[in-house]
Structures are given as structure tokens and as C-alpha cells.
Amino acid sequence: MTTVIRQDDLISSVADALQFISYYHPLNFIQAVHQAYEKEANPAARDAIAQILINSRMCAEGHRPICQDTGIVTVFLNVGMDVSWQGDMSVTDMVNEGIRRAYQHPENTLRASIMADPDGARRNTGDNTPGVIHYDIVPGDSVEIHVAAKGGGSEAKAKFAMLNPSDSVVEWVLKMVPLMGAGWCPPGMLGIGIGGTAEKAMLLAKEALLEPVNIQALMERGAENRAEELRLELYDKVNRLGIGAQGLGGLTTVLDVKVRDFPSHAANKAVAIIPNCAATRHAHFTLDGSGPARLQPPRLEDWPQVTRVVGGNVKRVNLDTITREDIATWKPGDSLLLNGKMLTGRDAAHKRMTDMLAAGEELPVDLEGRFIYYVGPVDPVGDEVVGPAGPTTATRMDKFTRTMLEQTGLMGMIGKAERGPTGIEAIRDNKAVYLMAVGGAAYLVSQAIKASRVLAFPELGMEAVYEFEVHDMPVTVAVDVNGESIHQIGPEKWRLKIRNGQE
Q1: 8 A C-beta contact, residue 12 and residue 292
Q2: How many C-alpha atoms does 59 have within 13 Å on its Cβ side?
Q3: Beta strand pairing call for 159-163 and 269-276
Q4: What integer pLDDT is reported at residue 309 of this predicted model?
Q5: d(Cα 206, Cα 354) in Å, to the nearest integer?
Q6: What's the burial of 321, exposed, middle or buried (CB within 10 Å: 0-12/13-18/19+)?
């Protein structure tokens, strides 16, 4: 008997799932993060994990996005051969309508991040469509659907190689992970795809990330095949790299490693890595013709009760009166609480400002002695000053940094993860500083923002230049005026500690 799937059931199910995963982490993921928190010995990494856990609970309670980057939507549909569709839209159009409704939901607006004409005008589509949709036609009379929202920072760290058949996958992964830096917001998961063709390996890696965190159960029962052997070996060896939460150095870099493989040509061994960040978001449901899917919310009591322990070395900073003499006393790893007014700006704003400077034009905002926060916030709802407003990956701004520091008098920058050599050199040469906020704690960070107004480029939407007034916004000194980086010092220190058994 043929099952009839109604158009509105698919649309509403996709929309509801995307809203659901915007504020609910998978419970198995939260349990794994909490285990990492309990065993972490590096205070800086432990505090970063605490912020992720606190943020997760706040989002579950407040139904607001875990991360300001609410992702590019990826949907996998296993469509039963005994299914028929009732409606006037294609299945792809149904899915995209679900995405559109989810991202424009008035009670929990999600950030639209999808750019049409990606190598040209890069025009925001305004509703986060289209999604990336994959189909498989299978036996059966139902439709099984996986919905994921993948952040751009972690997606940017994907790696691929066509290895020789005799090459070691483990060696290649251990070479690639340090090159990924911390822009993928560890601790998270690694999806590994092996075999097939180039595009198949990448697809395997993405599909692997839909699986639950269960490495501890695998460790208890032992590996039963080569893919499971690789999972165990890579989980141990990647964590021994000492990269740690947010790249600060520590005991946990990955919470799980997932491996999927597929037969390959005799001459090839395609291998792909795709990381999932601390904003891991995915849901699974089945449509059987009885109506839209109903996802079961987790219980709030299942979230661990975690509070941040702020040490006595935390410095409270007034951004309105800070001087270059003050910032010269900061050292990598120092914990700061920022107060006062800061500016915001990310890729599009930096490109616009550097083009204006090159043309000899006056900027619409004075950057002398100011700090700029690399962020593209979610739109506020209700009485919010601003929606979730976590940091974006700082290395994307490296190519603009020297110009901004030398031609505007900018004093400091705030972003996510490490800076690259070009950025660090510019910071050192201009005696500026770079501060790191925790990626994956966007809603928590937004609670420190007490006022917000657009100062320049309003047509850029979330990429406009805002002025935020903040109270006790937590950050870590990542690069000091001498060019010393915590993202180099921290992992090196903890890699040695782990190797010497001193953790």
C-alpha cells in the first residue's frame, strides 16, 4: 500500500526541526562535553567548556540560538519507493520552504547567512535558502529525514586528499588537525570519509557527523571492524595533540571521531575530514503519512549545573578609557572582563573600509584607540538588545589587519580562535592586541551586551558596523603586543604534559 506524504507535513517538519536544533543540543553531545569539563586540567580550557555548557542550558531554557552562525542547512532524505506526495511543489521546494519558515520565525529569528553569486556579488538570499539536499531512494513506505545546520567556521576547516593506497590515514589526519587551528571551535567531532570518489568521501564524512557521540561505549566493547579501529586510534591520538578547547591547550580536543568508508578504485584512497563544532546541531525524524514529525524536547534537568569559577587574576577593563600603556601589561592567557563601548565588523565591513582607505576616503566611523569585535549577530526578538552574538573566525580578517591597525589607529580586536602569521606580525609591529571570545557561547555573550546601535553600512545587515556597550564580557588575551600567541604556547605546553603523563 502506498503511503501519502502531504506537502505541509514535510514543510512544517523541516521548519520545526530547524527551530528545535537551533536551541537544543543533542543530549549525548552535552553529556560528552560535561565529561570533558569534569576531567579538564587546563583552567583556561575548563572555563571555555563551562561557557559552552552554560550557554547550552540558557539556549534550551530561552529558545534562542546556541550560536550566532545558525548554519547552512543540509538535509538527507531516504525516500521509500512506496511513497507518493500530495502537493504542488517539488520535494526540494518543500524542504526549502521549511528552511524559509524556520529562519524567519518571529519568536526565534535565525541568522540568514547564505550568499547567492558566491564568487561575485555575494548577495544574501535573506531567508537562508537554498539548503544542500541529498536524496536516496530506498525500499519502504516512509521518508526518513536527517536535518543539520552546519556553521561556516567549522565547515571552512574541511580537508580532502587523494592518498596513495599504501598511505596511512592516521598519519594524514594527525597532520591535518593541527593545520585546522581552532576555528572549528573544539571540542567537537570529526567526521572521516574514506574511499569512493572525491565527492563520495566528502559526503561520507558529512553523513558520519549525524551519528550520536558514543566513543566511550565503543571503548568498552572494543572495535569490530577497521572503521572502529580507526575511530579508537584517532580519538586517542588527536586528543594527545594537546590542542584542547578553543585551541587553548588541554586534554580534550575531540569528543568523538566518526568513520565511514566505501569501496574505491584500486589506484585511489580518497580521504576527507569534516569537523563539527561546539554548536553541533542535527535531528532525525520519519514521516509515515500520519502527520508532521514531533520531536521530543530534552528535559532541562538533563543539563549539568555548571557555573564559571572566575579566578583572582581576572582583570576588569574599561574600553572607554583603556590606553596603549594598559594593554602592554597584558599577557597571553590573561582573563579579562570587558566593559564600555566596542565596535563590530567582519568580512564585508573590513573589505568596505580597506577599499575606502585605499581610495583616500574618510571612514564613517573613527577607529582610533578602539576595539573591534568580529561578529555578525542574530537579530533581536522581544526586549533583547541584540540576538546571540558570538565571535567569528578571526583569521579571515588577517589580510585586512595591517591596514586597519596602521591607517586607523585601531588598538585591539576580539574574535574566535587563533590568528595567522600575517595577523600576528601586524599586531606585533603595531603594539596592538587580539582577544579571544569563546565560540559556541553566543547567547551567553549576548547577555553582556547592554546597548547596540548601527554606526555604518546598514545595508550589510548582520555584517554592518555596530557599536555595542558591554558589561563584563569574558575574553582571553590571545595575542599580546609582542606577538606572543596563546594558541601556540598553550597546545605546545599541553602536548608535552600529555606525553610526559603529567596531566
Answers
A1: yes
A2: 35
A3: antiparallel
A4: 65
A5: 36
A6: exposed
Residue 80: strand pairing partners: 138
Which candidate, 349, 204, 250, 219, places its Cα nearest to that of 39?
A: 250
Q: What's the pLDDT tens digit per position in 159-193?
A: 999 999 999 999 999 999 999 999 999 999 999 99
**441/54 Cα distance (integer angstroms):** 8
Angle separating helix axes 398-408 and 421-429, nearest 10 degrees: 10
Which residue do the cell numbers 595567522 mark? 420
The amino acid occupying position 100 is: R
The count of other CB atoms within 10 Å of the CB of residue 484 is 17
What domains are defined for the chain? Answer: 3-287 (no CATH), 315-490 (3.20.130.10)
Give the confidence band of 314 by pLDDT, cuts at 50, 70, 90: confident
128, 115 in Cβ contact below 8 A?
A: no
pLDDT digits (tens, 9 = 90+) for 233-273: 999 999 999 999 999 999 999 999 999 999 999 999 999 99
Closest CA to 437 of 51, 32, 33, 43: 51
Residue 59 has pLDDT above 90, yes or no: yes
User: Distance between CA 377 and CA 389 in Å, rounded?
Assistant: 4
